[in-house]
Each structure stands twice: as structure tokens, then as C-alpha cells.
């Protein structure tokens, strides 16, 4: 928790009122975003995203598993976020647990879509290998290395970058296996399939401070918030998920207003992120 | 209690004893709901306060097959380990009975229901009115029949009001499922399994303020608009029912 004096609080709020925040940004401007991919060789895909002083790592691991009997033609994706005490002393022990579950469920809601799989950023049916028998389980792990506000957006961006870095091995299924047994699969260690990430949304969090809302709030600004709405938006401008944080209530029209502002901001963020990911991947290839 | 049940028969009629088959759901363009409701029609609600005697306040809610009991304890002294705080603390816990779901013990993703309930309620409670103390809200889902969280939230706010905890307003919650092109209000479990998207709103009807809102699945802005309006209308109606339930309890002679 940040302890701010009354003067500092007024300064932050006053700045936001005048569209000039303490670090010189406008209300709807993001901090410079920095992306690095392929940082964890053991993972199928990984990325690190820095957003000002907020620093997060996301890794994607693919493992062979069995599909859920209720959805036999779909793979499984699980998202888990860890808040390391290196980021903030209050995350020590069970302190980070609450934030961890909040972030993981918000990310699941924003990225995995509805129960039937509609609107999911990740196409779950592409993870199926043999219907009802074998599928890929994607384990997406996020780690908060350093936290200076807006962790959710950074994690969303990191997961998007990690997924575009993800290479899933090609799988050969032996054709002559009896249909009632678990089929034998041969995982190739040379041929990989790239993951299609064009549908993965970006998450934009709008934080309401006083009468205005801002994007990409720092910890100081977050300490002054009354409520925040996180919207995940895909390339088509469709809303894929929404969560609200913070205790104060919001008027319905304000929420709709925030959604349209988030839509506008998401376009810029998506383009910026895509070019950053492309640059990071090019850089990664040059090294290897 | 029997007399009360009889009085409320206008909004709630108990189902007949015969065991019904689990209805199947078609996902065509013309959608028929498993329980024969209209698309924008909520399930009949039965609400009652004072379900648990030992609690400071409690409420029982029954929306179709979803049956929930919530008890509120406190305000009691916060644990010693907790730091001094000017505002009171709210502690929420949601649990399912093992027989709540069709498959025993298989409860639907309960991990964040407690924190969702906490977020939905904290905006409505005047926490400053009980400094240094904690209020416990325990919700138990007796039977899960779809739209569990909205029912839990509405029932919990009724229990808080019954306990005499100061609230800005009563909290009503309604969810909408999107299946194909259709919006279905107050979905049952069978519909929730097939849904393409879901939107849940928790609001304070007379203040017209949204305390919690979640969206899953892919939505266009116009669709969100429509769904929000649908939810808010239903919330204000539910708020009225909750209010009349509280009034009824207050005017009933104490026995």
C-alpha cells in the first residue's frame, strides 16, 4: 500500500482533472510498452512485458492431456497468476493470494470467452488431437515481477505475446489403433505449429479517479481510485470480457461511456502491441 | 412459517411431487426455454428473511430450482491480528452443499464466488458505520439451478438488511445469457451450459448504480447495451420484491 500525503493526493487528482498526470501523460495515454519474447527456453512460448515500472512474465506450456468429457472436441486452457513477494512485500505468504486469484479469474474471463467457446481469444478446438481422447492442455502462467499499477493489462499483453511466440509440436496419431483404446501419439520434436493469435484480445483497464477515468494507472493513481473497469476487446472491436473492481458503484451510462473509450484506446494499444511483438520476435530470431 | 408460505403463493407455487425429466435445450433460432418461460421473463422468486435463528440476520431465496440460504453474523470484533481500521470489514464465504449439483460434490467453479460476492456487496454497505469490527456473510447453496451468483448476491443483501447492517440501498443482481442471437434473462443450468456469453449486473436499483458487472463471451456494444438495460429493468423489479419482503417481515407480528 502506498501512503500518500493529502497534498500528493490532491496533486494526483487535480492533475487528472486537467488531463495532465504526474508523469506528463494524458488521461488516455499508455506508458511506453516494452516486449521481449522467447525468454524461457523450457516453455513452449514466453514473453516479458514492461509497462513503466510494471514488469510481468508470461509463459505457455503445452502438455498432452485428456479432454473434458462434456467438451470432447476441445482442448483445455488454464491460467494461473503468481504475485511474487519480490514485487511487493505485502505479497509475501498468503498476501498475494487474493490478488492472484482475482487476476487469474479476470484473465480467464477476458481471454477464454463463454462456456460454449464463443468469443474465446484462443480457439480451443484447434487444441484437440483425437476427439474425446487426446488434446493439448495449455498452461498459461503469469508472474508479477514488479508492480507499479495496471498489472492486469500488462499480464494480458504478456499472454498475447507469449501465445504468438508459442510453438506447439506437430503430432502424428498412429492410424491403426483400436477405437476404444487410448491412441498412440508421436510428438515431433522438429516440426512445430505456430499458434494463431489474431483473435486474442487486449485488456484495457479504465480507472475512475474523481470524476474522470484514466488508462494505465500507476500504483499511486490506483490508490486514489473509486472503481475500475477492465474490458477485453479483440481486433474486430467486439467486447470479449469485462470485470469491475473497486467498491464504489457506477452509473450505467458511465459504464457504457467507459466501454466506448476502452474500444477507442484498444485499437491503438493493439497496433502498438502487435508491432512490438513483431519486433521482439525478429530480434529473437536474429539471436538464435 | 407455514402461514407465511401460504401468503406468498402469488409469486411462488411449489412444483408437484412427480419427478421431472431433465429438459433438453435446442439451440435453434426459435428458442424454447426448458421451463417454458419467455426469453425476457424471470423465474418466480420466493424470498424470506429470518431463516436462521442464531444469526444476526438471515434470508432464504428460491428462484426456480436455485435455493440459497444466507446468514449474516456480527458486527463482531475483528481478529487481533488485523490492523486497526476506521471502516468495518466484510467477510464473505460461499459454499455449496454436496447435493447441490446433479453429480455429487461437483460444484461449479466456486473459487472466486466468495470474492465476487464481496465485491458486489462492499459498495452497498456503509462500512464506516461499524469501525474496528467485522461482518460475516455466509452463503450456502442448497440447490444449484442456474444463475447461482445473482441469487446469492440478492439473498445476501436481504440478509444484511435483516441483520440491521446499514446499507446505501438494497442490492439486486440479475444475469443474462446469450445463446446465438437471443438474450435469455435469469438462465437455468441447462441454458448456462450452452451459453455463448453471459452478462451479470449487480446494482442498487433506487440509486441506479452498478456495483458489480461481469461479461464473458463475445459481445457487440449494442448487444451489451440491450443486455444491460434488460438486467437493470429486472433488477429494479427484483428490488421491489425484496423491499416488499422486508416490509412484510417488519410488519408481521412477532411470535
TrEMBL record, chain A:
Residues 30-169, 199-263 form the Exoribonuclease phosphorolytic domain. Keywords: Cytoplasm, Exosome. Pfam families: RNase_PH, RNase_PH_C. The keyword Repressor does not apply. GO terms for cellular component: cytoplasm; exosome (RNase complex); nucleolus. It is found in: Cytoplasm; Nucleus, Nucleolus. InterPro entries: ExoRNase_PH_dom1 (IPR001247), ExoRNase_PH_dom2 (IPR015847), ExoRNase_PH_dom2_sf (IPR036345), Exosome_comp_Rrp42_subfam (IPR050590), PNPase/RNase_PH_dom_sf (IPR027408), Ribosomal_Su5_D2-typ_SF (IPR020568). Belongs to the RNase PH family. This is Ribosomal RNA-processing protein 42. It comes from Salvia divinorum (Maria pastora).
UniProtKB/TrEMBL annotation, chain B:
GO terms for molecular function: RNA binding. Keywords: Cytoplasm, Exosome, Nucleus, RNA-binding, rRNA processing. Gene3D superfamilies: GHMP Kinase, N-terminal domain. InterPro entries: ExoRNase_PH_dom1 (IPR001247), ExoRNase_PH_dom2 (IPR015847), ExoRNase_PH_dom2_sf (IPR036345), PNPase/RNase_PH_dom_sf (IPR027408), Ribosomal_Su5_D2-typ_SF (IPR020568), RNase_PH (IPR050080). One of its GO terms (cellular component) is nucleus. One of its GO terms (biological process) is rRNA processing. Residues 41-165, 169-230 form the Exoribonuclease phosphorolytic domain. Residues 1-36 are annotated as: Disordered. It is found in: Cytoplasm; Nucleus. Belongs to the RNase PH family. This is Exosome complex component RRP41-like. It comes from Salvia divinorum. The gene is RRP41L.
